[in-house]
């Protein structure tokens, strides 16, 4: 496989990074790529496409475009994996990917790219190997400094509050969970397609738990561990689940000195697929796969993930759960046609998790018909925590709940005036989509019993951070 060019483009199409390895592709390929992606019909452009004799491969991360060009028809999976590795290494060094960070560290990024690829051929794609070859220092920006998680001087056995949010510090045993809330706010992307929801910024820190670059933490002895679960679920008009599964991931970001051996103990009652007992209290997952560094024999025997942890970000385990969980949100909705071309839409949402958990920045979105002259919204609770709006150009209702406590419910009533010539049809309303994130809670009941670091030397300043996050990937309620 031969790469001709590497680009990083801004959301506006500006070229931030441009490395031409071979000189065999025209200089205007970046503009050609951006025009094709923006004007692509039928949704997003595919990650690989062929245009004017050039093979383009791209990944989108935080609204930035990472692009490879080539004159050769290479293996799609191979070139996508290489591009993913480049993005991951840049993130490991810079701590966070954003336009500000890329512009502030363009010299460092050029050096990283030159270590990965030489004259279009891959040389190295491992963070640990490259870090000793890169000599430029990271330029800290507000994105890196404000978003990072930092310790306040606790030892390995104590808990602490962090700068960017709140996490759980653990010693040999994971202690009490504390909700994590960052200063960033959620933004909804354009939902004109309404097939999925997407977020610009999460209400907690990113899923790797830390945005700190590896170069700024060589004197720190820290490890961040996340269990992230994403829900895909469809409810019918009766509120019954007709389709559901959870995609889970255990991922770690390490700043440990000397790459020590680590052991992460999971629930002893964890069972995979049909190998479980009849006890319904067991934690059951339907499918899973592991990082190649994990000792599989010890996991089979003791349910322990053990490995020599490399520097940077690493996914230890992916898993999937089908149907064997309770939906966190219950939705009830009705559409009633009234006199004078009016429709009453009522939506009630209940959070069925223990009261100690709080879901922040919940977005409830409902498609409405296109023939509307006026919408009056009435919230069940008058507070700054609740807001609702009718977005006319997208024909949808957006209801925002900033804080939603467990074992509670909220409702909204909408009085909609229809156009005089329109004949009411219930199928023109719905479905309802939800976007949410619940910190320090997971549906699978998968737990970290302990996180042990087997070091060659004694260190009293090792910090361990563990988080649980539940997110909506696709949470849909059908009105009919």
Automatic annotation (TrEMBL):
<dbReference type="GO" id="GO:0006886">
    <property type="term" value="P:intracellular protein transport"/>
</dbReference>
<dbReference type="InterPro" id="IPR022775">
    <property type="entry name" value="AP_mu_sigma_su"/>
</dbReference>
<dbReference type="GO" id="GO:0030131">
    <property type="term" value="C:clathrin adaptor complex"/>
</dbReference>
<dbReference type="Pfam" id="PF01217">
    <property type="entry name" value="Clat_adaptor_s"/>
</dbReference>
<dbReference type="InterPro" id="IPR001392">
    <property type="entry name" value="Clathrin_mu"/>
</dbReference>
<dbReference type="InterPro" id="IPR011012">
    <property type="entry name" value="Longin-like_dom_sf"/>
</dbReference>
<keyword id="KW-0653">Protein transport</keyword>
<dbReference type="GO" id="GO:0012505">
    <property type="term" value="C:endomembrane system"/>
</dbReference>
<comment type="similarity">
    <text>Belongs to the adaptor complexes medium subunit family.</text>
</comment>
<dbReference type="InterPro" id="IPR050431">
    <property type="entry name" value="Adaptor_comp_med_subunit"/>
</dbReference>
<keyword id="KW-0813">Transport</keyword>
<dbReference type="GO" id="GO:0016192">
    <property type="term" value="P:vesicle-mediated transport"/>
</dbReference>
<keyword id="KW-0472">Membrane</keyword>
<dbReference type="InterPro" id="IPR036168">
    <property type="entry name" value="AP2_Mu_C_sf"/>
</dbReference>
<dbReference type="InterPro" id="IPR028565">
    <property type="entry name" value="MHD"/>
</dbReference>
<dbReference type="Pfam" id="PF00928">
    <property type="entry name" value="Adap_comp_sub"/>
</dbReference>
<feature type="domain" description="MHD">
    <location>
        <begin position="220"/>
        <end position="478"/>
    </location>
</feature>
<protein>
    <recommendedName>
        <fullName>MHD domain-containing protein</fullName>
    </recommendedName>
</protein>
């Amino acid at each position: 496989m031969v790469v001709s060019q590497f680009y990083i483009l801004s959301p506006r199409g500006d070229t931030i990074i441009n490395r031409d390895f071979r000189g065999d592709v025209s200089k205007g390929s970046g503009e050609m790529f951006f025009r094709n992606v923006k004007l692509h019909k039928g949704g997003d452009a595919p990650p690989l496409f062929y245009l004017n004799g050039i093979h383009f491969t791209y990944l989108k991360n935080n609204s930035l475009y990472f692009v490879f060009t080539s004159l050769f028809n290479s293996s799609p999976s191979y070139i996508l994996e290489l591009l993913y590795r480049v993005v991951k290494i840049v993130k490991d060094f810079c701590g966070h990917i954003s336009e500000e960070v890329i512009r502030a560290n363009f010299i460092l990024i050029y050096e990283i790219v030159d270590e990965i690829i030489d004259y279009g051929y891959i040389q190295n794609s491992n963070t640990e190997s490259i870090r000793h070859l890169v000599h430029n220092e990271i330029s800290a920006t507000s994105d890196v400094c404000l978003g990072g998680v930092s310790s306040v001087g606790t030892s390995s056995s104590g808990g602490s509050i962090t700068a960017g949010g709140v996490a759980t510090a653990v010693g040999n045993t994971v202690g009490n969970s504390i909700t994590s809330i960052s200063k960033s706010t959620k933004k909804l992307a354009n939902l004109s397609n309404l097939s999925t929801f997407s977020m610009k910024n999460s209400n907690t820190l990113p899923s790797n738990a830390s945005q700190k670059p590896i170069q700024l933490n060589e004197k720190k002895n820290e490890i961040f561990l996340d269990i992230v679960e994403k829900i895909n679920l469809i409810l019918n008009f009766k509120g019954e689940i007709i389709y559901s599964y959870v995609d889970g991931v255990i991922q770690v970001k390490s700043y440990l000195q000397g790459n020590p051996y680590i052991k992460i103990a999971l629930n002893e009652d964890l069972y995979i697929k049909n190998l479980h007992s009849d006890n319904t209290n067991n934690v059951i997952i339907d499918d899973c796969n592991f990082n190649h560094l994990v000792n599989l024999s010890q996991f089979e025997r003791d349910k322990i993930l053990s490995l020599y942890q490399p520097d940077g970000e690493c996914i230890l385990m992916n898993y999937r759960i089908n149907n064997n969980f309770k939906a966190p949100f219950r939705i009830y909705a009705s559409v009633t046609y009234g006199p004078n071309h009016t429709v009453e839409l009522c939506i009630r949402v209940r959070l069925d998790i223990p009261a100690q958990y709080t879901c922040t920045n919940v977005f409830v979105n409902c498609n409405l018909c296109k023939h509307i002259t006026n919408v009056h919204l009435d919230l069940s609770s008058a507070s700054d925590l609740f807001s609702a709006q009718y977005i006319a150009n997208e024909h949808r209702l957006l209801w925002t709940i900033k804080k939603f406590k467990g074992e509670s419910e909220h409702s909204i009533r909408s009085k909609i005036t229809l156009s005089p010539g329109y004949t009411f049809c219930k199928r023109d309303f719905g479905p309802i989509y939800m976007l949410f994130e619940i910190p320090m809670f997971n549906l699978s009941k998968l737990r970290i019993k302990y996180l042990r670091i087997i070091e060659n030397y004694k260190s009293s300043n090792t910090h361990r951070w563990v988080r649980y996050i539940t997110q909506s990937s696709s949470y849909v309620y059908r009105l009919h």
